[in-house]
């Protein structure tokens, strides 16, 4: 498309005869004509100017064949090229959205020409086609991919244009410098290698049929968490974002990161009330259902995304902050896997620091070179995935998933889900290595994924999340309320100060126990949890004393206690739950 003559006075119709028509004249039916000065409506007596010149790229529509429109390009008053998709539905609407969009983007036209310009646009029927997508990522898995607003592998069939938001991507330095100064020095540092592998995971989610994946590096300040995020961000040149956003705001950010990487720093900045729902939302890949202006259900936002997070506390700890009695469920920590940032080598996140540098200097150096060299690895990675429709990486994932299942065959259901996610992380890093992108030896990404999975698994001592959560919740209730909520036998003075009694402190079968009444046990202590499952875990850990036999084949978890109010079925928790550990 050639630059228009911006000094031309467009509303003067003098001297128009013979002006060359060089802007897609073949698509314009009579009585419209596109000239170098703009679009004109031909009349018997005098042509009428409708708007400044623009080029018709083609008729647009989505992958599913709806949302038809016209894709046009033009230059605004400052000479900047604009691309605009005009919905055909807006062209027949009385509300004027189409003309408002054109004016907002800088296409000049006389105020009285709006209806005639709409009619002119509606009359177009170009043969050229353009596919529009609302999110980044795969247009066709294994074929076309939108990396930001840049299509990779799409022009072979027809142009693809992004009409939604894309996460900003920064291109800096060179690929060779990135591999030599960022990827290669990360070798031997399991957390850094895992973070870089996570940056390559996004495009694999759709190809492998995997759900969203999230990693949360937890640790004290200055432990190197920000360095892990920085090296990961440099793979595609994405920015390091923050948890300081509403759930609605994060919906838009996740959509703009579809099939890619979303980095959120400082978990402490999200509210305790929102954190659980946000984690579920990001992992499930679906936004809230909203209504349109007429009350109809609007289309939900959807995404598949790899999330990389950092913070000084875990998801479970965050949910309990500021006195908010939030509950975390197993699904939340499976969706955002909590990993201790400290690798245990006395250097924070690092295990392999160059001899000439301190851990702090190495951290500063990596962050500096990651900023100066970014955005080069991901395009090459996408092109490698497109070769042979992604079949090589699918075979690699099948092999690694089987290898992880064999190596860790004795883990429970939740841990098995997490184990498969680490197999996918290993696959992403190994495939990038096979493509010559990282400079790592074969097996480096797998070794790091296994080390981090084992750290996650050992951190929970092999217990399921529900078991740990039940213990932490009951222990926390007793520690928080103590004598203010429990009657103690023979201590009338203390008992007179008990308000809103939760239970009694009694000796049960020779052991001191906190005996919870049924209502506070279910409605306060274990609110939001599966009561029977929590009781089962407490019983298995030897922390809940029961005397009730099975009834109709169902296990009962209560103990009959004589109280001043008579015999009651209580939940008798051993006082040993207050000790560290799980019983």
Features:
583 residues; alpha/beta; Rossmann fold; 3 domains; six-stranded mixed β-sheet; five-stranded mixed β-sheet; 22 strands; globular; disordered N terminus
CATH class identity of the largest domain: Alpha Beta
Count all strands and give the number: 22
In terms of per-residue confidence, which ranges show pLDDT below 50 for 5 or more consecutive residues? 1-25
Task: Tell me the span between the first and last alpha carbons.
Answer: 74 Å
Examine the secondary-structure arrangement and name the CATH architecture of the largest domain: 3-Layer(aba) Sandwich
Structural class: alpha/beta
Please write out the topology:
Layout: E1 32-35, E2 38-41, E3 48-51, E4 55-61, E5 69-75, E6 81-87, H1 88-91, H2 97-105, H3 114-122, E7 129-133, E8 137-138, E9 145-147, E10 150-152, E11 160-162, H4 175-183, H5 190-199, H6 202-208, E12 213-218, H7 225-236, E13 241-242, H8 247-256, E14 260-265, H9 272-284, E15 305-311, H10 315-319, H11 330-335, E16 337-340, H12 359-372, H13 377-386, H14 391-407, H15 413-434, H16 444-459, H17 465-481, E17 486-488, H18 492-495, E18 503-508, E19 511-516, H19 518-525, H20 531-540, E20 544-545, E21 559-563, E22 566-574
Parallel strand pairs: 4-7, 7-11, 12-15, 12-16, 13-14, 14-15, 17-18
Antiparallel strand pairs: 1-2, 2-3, 4-5, 5-6, 8-9, 9-10, 18-19, 19-22, 20-22, 21-22
Helix pairs in contact: 5-7, 5-15, 5-16, 7-12, 8-9, 14-15, 15-16, 17-20
How would you explain this protein's 3D organization?
This protein is α/β, with parallel strands linked by helices and 583 residues long. It folds into three domains: 25-133, no CATH class; 175-290 and 299-376 and 386-459, Rossmann fold (3-Layer(aba) Sandwich); 465-578, no CATH class. Helix content is 36%, strand content 18%. The protein has 20 helices and 22 strands. Strands 17, 18, 19, 20, 21 and 22 form a six-stranded mixed sheet that branches. The model is unreliable at 1-25 (pLDDT under 50).
């Amino acid at each position: 498309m050639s630059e228009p003559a911006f000094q031309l006075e467009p509303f003067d119709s003098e001297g128009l005869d013979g002006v060359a028509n060089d802007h897609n004249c073949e698509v314009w039916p009579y009585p419209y004509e596109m000239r170098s000065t703009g679009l004109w409506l031909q009349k018997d007596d005098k042509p009428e100017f409708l708007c400044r010149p623009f080029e018709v790229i083609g008729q647009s529509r989505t992958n599913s064949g709806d949302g038809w429109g016209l894709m046009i390009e033009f230059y605004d008053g400052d000479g900047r090229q604009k691309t605009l998709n005009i919905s055909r539905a807006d062209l027949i609407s009385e509300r004027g959205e189409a003309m408002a969009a054109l004016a907002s983007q800088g296409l000049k036209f006389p105020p009285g020409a709006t209806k005639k310009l709409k009619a002119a646009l509606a009359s177009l029927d170009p043969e050229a086609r353009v596919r529009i997508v609302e999110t980044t990522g795969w247009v066709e898995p294994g074929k076309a991919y939108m990396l930001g607003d840049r299509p990779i592998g799409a022009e072979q069939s027809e142009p693809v244009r992004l009409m939604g938001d894309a996460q900003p991507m920064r291109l800096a330095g060179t690929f060779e410098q990135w591999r030599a100064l960022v990827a290669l020095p990360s070798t031997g540092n399991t957390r850094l290698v895992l973070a870089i592998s996570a940056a390559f995971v996004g495009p694999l989610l759709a190809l492998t049929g995997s759900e969203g994946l999230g990693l949360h590096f937890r640790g004290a300040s200055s432990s190197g968490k920000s360095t892990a995020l920085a090296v990961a961000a440099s793979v595609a040149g994405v920015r390091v974002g923050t948890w300081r956003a509403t759930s609605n705001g994060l919906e838009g950010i996740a959509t703009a990161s579809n099939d890619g990487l979303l980095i959120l720093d400082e978990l402490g900045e999200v509210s305790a009330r929102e954190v659980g729902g946000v984690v579920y939302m990001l992992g499930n890949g679906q936004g809230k259902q909203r209504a349109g202006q007429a009350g109809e259900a609007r289309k939900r936002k959807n995404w598949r995304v790899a999330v990389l997070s950092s913070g000084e506390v875990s998801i479970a700890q965050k949910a309990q902050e500021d006195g908010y009695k939030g509950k975390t469920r197993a699904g939340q920590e499976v969706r955002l896997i909590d990993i201790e940032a400290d690798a245990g080598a006395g250097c924070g996140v690092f295990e392999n620091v160059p001899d000439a540098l301190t851990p702090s200097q190495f951290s500063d150096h990596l962050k500096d070179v990651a900023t100066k060299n970014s955005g080069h690895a991901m395009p090459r990675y996408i092109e490698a995935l497109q070769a042979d429709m992604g079949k090589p990486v699918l075979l690699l994932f099948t092999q690694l998933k089987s290898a992880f299942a064999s190596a860790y065959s004795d883990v429970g259901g939740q841990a098995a889900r997490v184990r498969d996610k680490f197999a996918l992380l290993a696959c992403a890093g190994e495939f990038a290595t096979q493509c010559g992108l990282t400079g790592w030896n074969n097996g480096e990404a797998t070794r790091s994924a296994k080390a981090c999975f084992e750290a996650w698994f050992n951190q929970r001592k092999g217990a399921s999340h529900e078991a740990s959560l039940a213990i932490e919740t009951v222990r926390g209730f007793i520690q928080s309320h103590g004598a203010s909520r429990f009657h103690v036998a023979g201590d009338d003075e203390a008992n007179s100060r008990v308000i809103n009694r939760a239970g009694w402190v009694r000796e049960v079968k020779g052991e001191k126990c906190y005996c919870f009444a049924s209502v506070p046990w279910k409605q306060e202590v274990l609110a939001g949890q599966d009561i029977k499952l929590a009781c089962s875990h407490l019983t298995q850990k030897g922390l809940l004393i029961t005397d009730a036999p099975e009834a109709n084949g169902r296990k009962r978890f209560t103990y009959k206690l004589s109280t001043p109010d008579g015999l009651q079925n209580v939940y008798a928790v051993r006082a040993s739950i207050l000790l560290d550990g799980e019983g």
